[in-house]
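hey so i finally got around to running the thing on that chain from the lab meeting. sorry it took forever, my laptop kept dying and i had to restart like 3 times. anyway pasting the input first so we r on the same page abt which one it is
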Amino acid sequence: MSERKAMTNEQFNAFMKRCKTEWGVRYVRPTIHPRAGVITCLDIITSEEVKQLTITNNPDPDFNLTEAAHEYLDKRKGEVTK
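ok and heres what got predicted. didnt touch it at all, straight out
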């Protein structure tokens, strides 16, 4: 059975350390589930856009918030180096 995966606090801390070194990430706004204590949504704010990644109402049953956030940074890094 597949399920959407939220981001733990440890994963969020590692992601924030990476954001510190990536060009263009200005601010990251997490949404923390009040009972579970995990991050269910990230708003990544850059100079060009606001990217929202969320497990809530996501059509992909295998969505992994941590992987999606890192893939987004990888994509941005590729765009910046061009």
